[in-house]
Amino acid sequence: MNTAERWIRRYSPELPGAAQLVFFPHAGGSASYYRPFCLALADRFEVSALQYPGRQDRFAEPCVTDLDSLADHVFARLRTMTGRPLAFFGHSMGALLAYETARRFEEELGISPVRLFASGRSAPSRPGETAVDLTGDRLLTEIRALGGTDPQLLDDEAMLELLLQPLRADYQALQTYRFSPGPPLRCPVTALSGASDPRTREDGVAAWREHTQGEFDMRVFPGGHFFLSEHVEDVTALVTERLSGVSQSG
């Protein structure tokens, strides 16, 4: 498997002229979380999801514990995908990572994604995650509070360690992230949130408006932090609607 294949998992055949859509997983998450979304969109877009180091088939690779460094790695892998319109969808930590990657596209290449979908995360300029003890039981308590992980996996000691290693790394990346003020993105932003998310306030999600010079809209779904899993059809319909009319000509 070459470097690009390790980082980018493709879930659709080539569709000449179609927009490209890349999903950015949440803290501790993997590309496979987005498989239902990718399959639902594969007849309209060339869809793929990122696979960060330190999880699933990349378990033997060291995790990246700095979000800016992770954004540099992702940018290096995605910067070749500029021949056609390119959209980003990130959930939770993935929303911050997608934002930082979009900044690099604009600053380094002078190219903007056609849209950034920022899900389940307050705007970058707002206070970050509540500090969590990464070495004790509080991280496990946090995972249980957010939901989204099969409780049976959390009760399996062997599986739990496989989950906790990338989670610790990703939470360290989140807790050490510091927003650097700069020009707002030129691309439009769509923010998504769960109405009963215990970690994300609606006003914090609405503050994504401050981070774009383009169009902004926000959609609140029923559910908690992992509302996406409960609304695959509605979320993919929203993505399709927002990317309608986007073609190779952009």
TrEMBL record:
Keywords: Hydrolase. InterPro entries: AB_hydrolase_fold, TEII, TesA-like, Thioesterase. Residues 22-243 form the Thioesterase TesA-like domain. Pfam families: Thioesterase. PANTHER family: S-ACYL FATTY ACID SYNTHASE THIOESTERASE, MEDIUM CHAIN, THIOESTERASE. Belongs to the thioesterase family. This is Alpha/beta fold hydrolase.
